[in-house]
Amino acid sequence: MALSNANLVCQSGRITGLLGANGSGKSTMSKIIAGVYSADAGEIRYNGKPVKYRNPNEARKDGIAMVFQNLSLVADLTVWQNIVLGSEEKKGMFLNNRAAMDLSREIVYQLLPGLDIRKMVHELNPGEMQIVEIAKAISENPKLLILDEPTAALEQAQVKSLFTTMHALVKKGVAIVFTSHRLWEVMEICDDVVVFRNGENVGSIDFTKDVKDLEKIIGYITGETQKAKVEKAHDTVTDEIVLSIKNLNYGNFLKNVSFELKKGEILGIGGLAGQGQHELMLALAGNYPGVTCDAELNGKKVKLNKPANAIQNSILLVPGDRQLEGLFLKHSVFTNLIFPKLGLKRQPLLTPQKKYRKECEQVIDVLSIVTHNLDMPVNSLSGGNQQKVVVGKWLSFDTNVLLLADPAKGVDVGAKRDLYEYIVKQVKEKRMSVILYASDNEELVEYCDRLMIMYEGQIVATLEGKEINDDKIVATSMRVS
Amino acid sequence: MSRVNKKRKPAEDSALRGLISNPDFSRLLILIVMFALTAVLQKNFFALKSIVRNINSFTPLILLTMGQAVVIISGGLDLSVGSALSLLTCVLTSVMREGMPITGAYALVLTFAVAMVIGVINGIGIGYFRIPPVIVTFATSFIWLGIALFLRPTPGGETVDWFQAFYKIGNIENAPASLKAFGDIVPPALILVLIGCVLWWAISRTRTGRYIYAVGSNSESAYETGINTAWVQMQACMINSVFIFLAALFFVGQNGSGDARMGDPLTLKAIAAAVVGGIALTGGRGSVYFALVGALIFSFVSKIIFFANIPNAYQTLFGGVIVIIAIAGSQIYTLSSRRAMEESKLT
User: Fold this and answer.
1) Could you tell me the domains of chain B?
2) Per-residue pLDDT tens over the stretch B309-318
3) Is B11 on the interface with A (CB under 8 A)?
4) How far apart are CA B68 and CA B263, in angstroms?
């Protein structure tokens, strides 16, 4: 049961924001409208007529297009083949490929000039894939466009051009449903918002009539009045250097990266998407054998040529793409939590199940992971809770350096706060050191003691103290200052 | 934007690199090596007679591999190919009556209908009931075999004279001389393969062709895009049936009889040949034409073993080893050339 008594009204020429925590039923609602699922009860009225779509094709024919959160792209076809997929035009007996390419080129040009439409989709980076997914929905000339978290993989410039395109569509009378966890985006673009919690709608605000009250929206989403903001850990920063990296090089991706990380510090990495931040995190975690650098951990030389090395030195990675890199999705929470132990610590011949289960229950307690029991497969958990499991699997290790590679991507406000609250607590109590890469500048501003901006694989600036604010970050990232 | 330009290498340089690192290139290399080896080992390899003989012995596997490739690309797998082929030969030879040329036409129509039914049934199981393809087609393979054994418990049956047009036009008694001469140069088997190629060429330019790749690559995405994935998978099975039908025509033309057991060994060979040709078993990737290349490599391997004077007892063993070496070789080649390309990008 993902939805109960959920209501949603959208009008043509308006952008309706659909908000809610992970697992609150936003995606389910969207998919019902788009004909992917069918509702058990209730009614959908479209242009005044009740409709019931049995499959996505019927919804498409009525002019409903959807951008899927998990993307509906086919990796083995090219960009333009994906954009026209399902609505190919024919010329005589065969497909009219030239018209399809022209159409695709035109739409892609609005969103991301410079993307080669003849590339295979599996060659693209996540942001480009997202753009293709959006282009695909727009190519159908929809009357109702549902955008389910279209911005999670995009950098700010791309978000801006998406917004421009959305405004243009709205002017033509298209109705848009927009979902995002980044509230500033919602505040900027939406005409009204509807908030879901646990499959019910708990509130709605019409921005054209009411004030844009962020606190109120967050209250609707989390179901509680907002707690005091998590405080920065500034006071815990010591002068002791934990990790020092000198001249880290990795082909064209990373060039002469040098920095020092102090004990009890949260060091941020920012910049435009795809400037080497992700590669730097993976390099520090030992994922690239070809990396050259002088690394010292607590004054001792270490090698970072394989993941096991990094882990044994307690440099632990929480990857951004939890579904691909951090979890065994079909296995239980228990298996996922104890897995690193099995491989990397000296083990008794038989796994002491009882003892480990007890430890895992403690982990679940500490991180307040919402799960029915330890044996639930991890993919049945919501995104935020999945991410907590990724963090939780390192809990039994002593952490020297925790690498967070965009840990809150696709995680709702409440779970995001829980996660960071826990990490800040660890930093304060255990003097843990953290390197944080986040695609959302808000997180960097809120939590970092120092912030390094990367550009084309180099660290071009390091911001400290009051310099860490959104304007400054954007300016430095784009190299305009 | 300047960043993009900086990365771009001179066009011809990267084009050549792209060609060399293309796995299909390594497959063609292997084909050339196998071709050369066979040419060295087989006497009179380039004589018209041996060329025709080779084409004839390669054709059934080529046709079945191409059909199988279509199913695999659509995300399925057909283990009933061999017994479907056997069944079709049995149906053909049961309908035809010697000395009554018109029965040949009846046989063609009826057998084509049976082939379509075979495709539809496999397609229903794979596409509409969502039963794992291996299980559906393993089960149906016994159904086809059972019906074939019912029709023809022992090999045999009758054919009409003109049916040899699918094997050797020269064997037909009252065919015009010019047609016979043409048949000597262009063997019917080659024409059957060409028909298969043209068929796929046409289909690959339609929605069906595009959707077969889409569904095999990611059926969930394809469904969400409004594609009727079950229907596409059924169409793939029916296209496969056409290829099996072509192979059955050749067999009956060649042997003049039907055999309920003759197709069995070809099933797994066709799958292996498709893999050698670069069709990914996970679906969505590979080219049907390269399935043909895979079938050729596979066929040359058996020729080489036959002519290399390897004792009978070891021939099967050697066949397996050579195929493994061929696949591993192309894999290593691809990996190393990709690595070389990445390194050149890095510096």
Assistant:
1) 22-338 (1.10.3470)
2) 888 788 778 7
3) no
4) 14
More confident residue, A23 or A66: A66
Question: B306-314: which pairs have CB atoms within 8 A and are 24 or more residues apart?
Answer: B307/B38, B307/B41, B307/B42, B308/B41
According to DSSP, residue B166 is labeled G
> In the predicted model, is pLDDT for residue A360 greater than 60?
yes
Q: What is the pLDDT of residue B338?
A: 65
Spell out which residues of chain B touch residue A74, defining contact as CB-CB under 8 Å: 213-214, 217-218, 221-222, 284
In this prediction, residue A343 carries a pLDDT of 67
- What is the reported pLDDT for A182? 78
ipTM comes to 0.81
Nearest residue on chain B to A77, alpha-carbon basis: B214
> Domains plus CATH for chain A?
15-222 (3.40.50.300), 234-477 (3.40.50.300)
Q: What is the pLDDT of residues B34-80, one digit of tens each?
A: 899 999 988 888 888 888 889 999 999 999 999 999 999 999 999 99
pTM of the model: 0.76
Residue of A nearest to B344 (CA): A251
